[in-house]
Task: inverse folding
């Protein structure tokens, strides 16, 4: 989904849609109020957000799992497996495809085991059977089925919270004053261009930035495509690492590519005599026999104070 322009500011359209946003916010509040979350023995850390669209939850989740593993813990991800057809399974990257389990779980599985279940509580029980002492929820901040020991709100520092109205008038998944109450920390990814930190003064704030794992030392033309919540983030990263984007194409978030679409992108690359780059999230949805023809920009989160973040995670 491309972020609607009226979400960025308070304008005529957002004002007209404001009553619908209030209904959406009230419905979310009622759903969270009437459903009592269930506890499991493992410690549950939720990586979520207040807004729709990509904020960087998946790379943040991966980085948290890595920190816990370095501390001798055994984290397992629990995901709803958006877009996948299977549930109550442990992801096997050698066997499962994005059609089976969704695209994000395949990325998470490169760092730690992943359990798929729309019911996060049932997923957490299976994760415990697999030996997890920490469960990381990639998304699910507004999901009431599983009790969360700690919740971290992830915010894109370049985008902020928009006009702070609820969907469809704005980007919020719930009323901000209610969402803040359930959080134990905030992770701001990228430069804080909207003074986000001032809105969460009572919470620990962890700042991080996105780095390319293996940035190319060369500057050359590339063709790029992405099917993520905010494709501009990907294109900006390519530009920052010295690439010149000569052609690009956006696809809907979680889009499953047809072979014709992929062949069209390769043809575009040939036309411009340039390699075709995409995101890691999109790369896992490319059929294996075509993957060698595409390049991927791998990213990771670099934290300003990783030791403080680790201490926050293990102090439960």
Result:
């Amino acid at each position: 989904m491309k972020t609607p322009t009226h979400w960025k500011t308070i304008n005529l359209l957002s004002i007209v849609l404001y009553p619908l946003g209030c209904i959406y916010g009230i419905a979310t509040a009622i759903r969270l109020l009437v459903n009592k979350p269930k506890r499991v023995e493992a410690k549950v850390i939720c990586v979520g957000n207040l807004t729709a669209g990509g904020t960087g939850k998946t790379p943040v989740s991966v980085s948290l799992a890595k920190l816990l593993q370095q501390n001798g813990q055994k984290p397992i991800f629990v995901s709803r497996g958006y877009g996948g057809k299977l549930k109550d399974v442990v992801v096997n990257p050698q066997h499962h495809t994005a059609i089976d389990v969704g695209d994000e779980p395949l990325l998470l599985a490169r760092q730690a085991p992943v359990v798929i279940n729309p019911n996060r509580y049932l997923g957490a029980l299976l994760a415990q059977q697999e030996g997890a002492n920490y469960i990381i929820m990639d998304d699910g901040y507004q999901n009431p089925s599983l009790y969360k020991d700690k919740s971290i709100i992830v915010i894109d520092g370049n985008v902020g919270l928009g006009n702070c109205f609820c969907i469809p008038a704005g980007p919020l998944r719930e009323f901000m004053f209610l969402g803040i109450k359930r959080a134990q920390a905030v992770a701001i990814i990228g430069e804080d261009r909207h003074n986000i930190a001032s809105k969460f003064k009572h919470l620990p704030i962890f700042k991080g930035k996105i780095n390319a794992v293996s940035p190319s030392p060369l500057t050359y033309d590339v063709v790029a495509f992405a099917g993520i919540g905010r494709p501009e983030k990907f294109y900006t990263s390519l530009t920052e690492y010295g690439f010149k984007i000569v052609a690009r194409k956006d696809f809907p978030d979680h889009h499953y590519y047809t072979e014709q679409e992929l062949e069209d992108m390769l043809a575009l690359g040939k036309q411009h005599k340039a390699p075709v780059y995409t995101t890691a999230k999109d790369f896992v949805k490319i059929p294996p026999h075509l993957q060698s023809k595409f390049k991927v920009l791998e990213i990771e989160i670099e934290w300003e104070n990783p030791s403080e973040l680790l201490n926050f995670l293990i102090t439960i």
Summary: The CA atoms of residues 215 and 269 lie 20 Å apart. The chain has eleven helices and 13 strands.
